[in-house]
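Q: what sequence does this backbone want?
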């Protein structure tokens, strides 16, 4: 019976590693903190627009622009303190991603280009 429980434990560990749920390191993305309705396209000042949309019930998102397109990522922890601070601005967002949703652990200003 001992060997069976060891095999079961090894199988669980192998599946955890294979699915990437064991000790996955946080990643970082650089993009604009926006709202789900506007998704980075604002007709007025970006910060003013995002603040207004959030007060109206929209959710914060991160818009990452690529060469030809933009990708919008949902943010799971909408009450993260620095979201309002960086609303409408470009920021470096660090956290964990599951599907297309980021759980934010840190937000910082991007480093100036040299």
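A:
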């Amino acid at each position: 019976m001992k060997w069976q429980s060891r095999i079961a434990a090894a199988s669980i560990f192998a599946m955890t590693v294979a699915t990437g749920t064991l000790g996955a390191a946080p990643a970082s993305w650089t993009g604009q903190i926006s709202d789900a309705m506007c998704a980075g396209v604002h007709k007025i000042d970006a910060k003013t627009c995002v603040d207004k949309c959030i007060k109206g019930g929209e959710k914060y998102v991160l818009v990452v622009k690529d060469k030809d397109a933009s990708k919008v990522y949902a943010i799971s922890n909408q009450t993260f303190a620095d979201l309002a601070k960086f609303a409408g601005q470009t920021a470096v967002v660090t956290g964990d991603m599951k599907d297309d949703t980021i759980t934010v652990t840190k937000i910082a200003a991007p480093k100036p280009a040299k």
